[in-house]
C-alpha cells in the first residue's frame, strides 16, 4: 500500500477547516465552517434555506470556488489534487440533470465512461446498480417515461457507477411521496452498509433522524450544532404532545406547574412538559378538572424541535 493510500485509509471521509465563501455581491455564505465526517458514516447536513448548505456541498464537489479554508476528502486536498479528490466523490444533485431521451442503461454506462471505466466493466456495474435500485426492468426504456421516484433512484445509481467512497446527496427525496421516499431510504441504507460514506442534506427532518448517525446544523453560514444524533437529541429537555380528549375542551384549562397547555381545537389540547416530569401527574390534574384524555401522540419529531431551537437563536 502506498503512503497516500495509507493516509486516505486513516483520514476522515471529509475534513473541512475554517471554510469561508464570500460571493462577488458581498454575501458571506460560509463564515469559517469546520466539521469532520467519519469513514462509513451516514451524516446529515441540515439548515434552513440560505444557510450555506448548497455552497458547502458545491465547494466539496468542486463546483464552487472557496474564498478560504481547507477541504480534504479521505486525506486528499481538493485544491491541490482536484482530480484525485473528485474520483472519491459521487454527487446526487437536487435537480434531475440527465438526458430524458436516453435509456437508463446507457446513461449509467456513458457516465462511467467519462471517468475512465472500461465499457465492459461499466455494463456490469450498470446492471448491478439498476437491480439494486429496482430499475432493471426499466433499463432499456426512455428515461422520460420513468416516474419521479424512479428518476431519483436513477440519479443515485449513476453516482454509484464510479464506486465513490463518499456519496453526497442534496435533497434526494424532494418532491416524492412518502412511500417512494421510504423505498429510497432502504436503498441508501444498503449503500451505506456496503461501506460508502453518505452525506445527506434534507428538509425532511424525519428522514435525517431515521437514516443518519451524526449531524451538523448550519445557519447563516456557521455551524450551530454538530455531533452524534442520539447525543444531540438527548439534550432536549422538553417534550410536546397532542392530547385527544373526550367531549369538548373547556373554556379554562388547569394550571399545572412546569407545563404549558393550549387549546388546539374543540377536541385537542397541546401539551409541553419537561422530559423528567411524570406524565401521570399531568393526567391526574386534567382528570381533576373533568378532562378525560382519550389518546395522545407526539407533537413533532425530536429532531425538528432541536432544529427549530438551534436556528431560531438571535432571530428578531
Key attributes of the depicted protein:
Rossmann fold; transport; Alpha-Beta Plaits; 11 helices; 316 residues; disordered N terminus; globular; AAA+_ATPase; ABC_transporter-like_CS; ABC_transporter_ATP-binding; four-stranded antiparallel sheet; 2 domains; nucleotide-binding; six-stranded mixed sheet
Q: What is the secondary structure topology, with strand pairs?
A:
Blueprint: H1 3-10, E1 14-22, E2 28-37, E3 42-46, H2 53-60, E4 68-73, E5 76-77, H3 82-86, E6 89-92, H4 104-114, H5 119-132, H6 148-160, E7 166-170, H7 178-193, E8 197-201, H8 205-211, E9 214-219, E10 222-228, H9 229-234, E11 238-245, E12 260-265, E13 268-274, H10 279-288, E14 293-298, H11 302-312
Kindly describe this structure.
This protein is of the alpha/beta class and 316 residues long. It has two domains: 3-229, Rossmann fold (3-Layer(aba) Sandwich), CATH 3.40.50; 236-312, 2-Layer Sandwich (Alpha-Beta Plaits), CATH 3.30.70.1560. Helix content is 34%, strand content 27%. The chain contains eleven helices and 14 strands. The chain has helices at residues 3-10, 53-60, 82-86, 104-114, 119-132, 148-160, 178-193, 205-211, 229-234, 279-288, 302-312; strands spanning 14-22, 28-37, 42-46, 68-73, 76-77, 89-92, 166-170, 197-201, 214-219, 222-228, 238-245, 260-265, 268-274, 293-298. The strands form three sheets. A six-stranded mixed sheet has the order 6-7-8-3-9-10, sandwiched between helices. The chain has a four-stranded antiparallel sheet with strand order 2-1-4-5. A four-stranded antiparallel sheet has the order 12-13-11-14. The longest helix has 16 residues, at 178-193. 34% of the residues are buried.
